[in-house]
Amino acid sequence: MYYDDTFRHVGEFGRYQKFLYFLICLPQIFSGIQTFLPVFILHVPDHRCASPMESQMSFALNDQNAFTNNNYTILSGEDNNKITTYFQCDILHEEIDVNSTSDDIENATTYKKEKCNTWIYDKTYFDFTFAMQSDLVCEKKADRTHAVMSFMAGLTGGSLVTGFISDFYGRKKAFMMCICLLIFPNIGLTFVTDYMIFVVLRCVSGFAVGGLLGTGFVLGMEIVGPTKRSWAGLVFEFFWAAGAMILALAAYLIRDWRHLNLVMSVPPVLFLSYIWLVPESPRWLLIKGKIQEAEAILEKTARLNKRFLPSDTLEKISFASKHRGLPLWKACTHPIIMYQLTVILFGWMIVSMVFYGLAMNSGNIGGNLYLNFFMSSFAELIGFAGCLAALHKMGRKPVFAISVLISGAACLLTIFPVLYASTEYQWTAMVLSTLGKVNVSAAFAVMFLYSGEIFPTVIRNSALGIAAFFARVGGMIAPYIIDIAAYIEHDIGKATPLLIFGVTAVVAGIFALKLPETKGVALPETLEDWLNFGKSGLADIEIEVSCEKLNKEEVTKSKEGNLKKKNITNYNEILLLS
Fold first, then answer.
1. Which positions, given as ranges, span the membrane (predicted)?
2. pLDDT tens digits, residue range 441-460?
3. How many Å apart are CA 36 and CA 207, to the nearest integer?
4. How far apart are CA 474 and CA 353, in angstroms?
């Protein structure tokens, strides 16, 4: 008997599960906020060297034309023969010898160039950012990139480490650990002045976000029934995108990085109450043989959902849970599992690469920074919403494959306006690029859902951590692919990244067509279940009947107050076809 059978009794998505699911999703808002926070707190506005008369960090340029050539010129001397020009990173001193007899002014001029150590910044969008505070410009501009990458490094480590912690020590322990790491380092960041401390705290923040995404997703998926998993997996992504949109609004209203960071870091303190509000995953408890704890949680779920859990249910499930199955290394030697795992990890890497690559490739489109960021986040919501609608009529596999293929095709089609379209038709490139991003956003959401369904319970969080690691690798590869344009001349350089994104996305979509379907199928518990899952073709059978129709066992109260059971159907036989 499988764990999914319990949902026939406790309910697939009752009142209590909705409450828990909402609580689990709320921290993902702040995961999205922390991921994109560097867009604003590490933003480097237009800048130039400061003159002695100008006070650093208090100067706001009203004349934007002063930044046309990133320079500012001052004349001095008795005959205005001394010219000092303040460029973005250098100060050029020119002195014309008015007594020179040379007709060539160049021969009568002496030049002296020096590096500057103070800057003034355009405050059109920001009053104060950490990049402005630490002057992460000119020779220190690489430090800004390192600060951004420190978060990605933490994200990668968090995905891996918390995945194993979750599988060995529990979903809730890993989840609460990540909440603590999300709160205290980010609040402390507000008061940081040292660059290295800033980098370390951002790395810790990335670790927390990586863990929250993985453990939160798994915990949310394991508390809902099989016919509600697609909904639960996709709505989880909406909270992430909503966080990015909230950040855009908050950054527009709060222009100082310290105040913005503090406002975005304090609300998660409320999540510390989850230590009392959110229980451990009953599925994980059963796998670990903690029957009484799992029974208590499931009985509470049934009671609050106004359902009834038979006493012998967990005895059957616990017997199945004792058979852990094959070790991971041995299971992965099987050709079916090897193929599925390779395609899934490759898909994660390519989808992430294309997602971040398209975002970076359209980052310099001009216009209002806050509006551009908000609309980019809104495009993700469109992709998630379209994906959610499609999953009701189609399976996971076709939605993922079609989304990736359309995204790849859009990237390839974008090459033509880049190479051949005149200026007035360049908007077609942006339309195609947006189409690619909407679809790759949908593919990202489905990949998260699909991985959560195909990996068995005994390694689910660990496997998701490994998958997330490959996704981060793809995200780190993306900027290097974008930089190819700097090494290849003319428009072909701009088209090359799109060619790479398009071809790899199409390949990932084609490979995905051979994966098994997971729609309407019980989550595998052991590695043997996973092996049989792909081997038997079980997942290729579409089960359109809702759990409510399968659940013909109804518990009603008689007039005497006794419970009666009627119309009992073997749910396990119908759902698993075994």
1. 20-44, 174-193, 199-219, 231-254, 260-278, 336-358, 370-391, 398-421, 427-450, 462-482, 494-513
2. 889 888 888 887 888 877 77
3. 14
4. 4
The gap between the terminal CA atoms of the chain, to the nearest Å, is 10
Residue 398 pLDDT greater than 50, yes or no: yes
Distance CA 232, CA 388 (A): 10
Distance CA 523, CA 284 (A): 12
Domains 1-44+127-322 and 325-542 share a fold: yes
With 0-12 / 13-18 / 19 or more C-beta atoms within 10 angstroms meaning exposed / middle / buried, residue 262 is middle
Dihedral of CA atoms 273, 276, 280, 282 in degrees, nearest 10, equals: -130
Long-range contacts: 80-87, Cβ < 8 Å, 24+? 84/51, 86/48, 86/49, 86/50, 86/51, 86/116, 87/48, 87/49
3-state secondary structure of 553: coil
DSSP state letter for 522: P
Say which amino acid occupies 386: G
pLDDT at 341 over 70: yes
Segment holding 371, helix H or strand E: helix 369-393
The Cα 274–Cα 207 span in angstroms is: 19
> How sure is the predictor about 17, in pLDDT bands with cuts at 50, 70 and 90?
very high
Helical spans, DSSP H, in 423-562: 427-454, 460-482, 490-512, 527-535, 547-550
Q: What are 288-300's pLDDT values in tens digits? A: 888 889 888 988 9
Helix (H, G, I), strand (E, B) or coil at 267: helix
Is-contact 36 247, C-beta < 8 A?
Answer: yes
Q: Helix or strand or coil: residue 111?
A: strand
d(CA 121, CA 48): 7
Classify the C-alpha dihedral 122-126-131-133 as positive or negative: positive
- Assigned token pair, 556: 């009603």
Quote the Cα angle for 479-483-487, to 5°: 165
- Is 320:308 a contact under the CB 8 Å cutoff? no
Tens of pLDDT, residues 205-245: 999 998 998 899 889 888 888 778 778 877 888 898 899 89
- What is the CATH number assigned to the segment(s) 325-542? 1.20.1250.20
* Domain spans of the chain, in order of start: 1-44+127-322, 47-121, 325-542
**CA 383, CA 442: separation in Å to the nearest integer?**
5
C-beta separation of 504 from 354 below 8 A: yes
pTM of the model: 0.74
pLDDT at 366 over 60: no
Q: Indicate the CATH number for domain 1-44+127-322.
A: 1.20.1250.20
Task: Confirm if 449 and 229 have CB atoms less than 8 A apart.
Answer: yes
Residues 566, 357: Cα–Cα separation, whole Å: 57
Cβ(2)–Cβ(576) below 8 Å:
yes
Pairing of strands 47-49, 72-76: unpaired
Buried (b) or exposed (e) across 344-378, using 16+ Cβ within 10 A? bbbbbbbbbbbbbbbbbbbeeeeeebbebbbebbe
Q: What is the pLDDT of residue 277?
A: 94
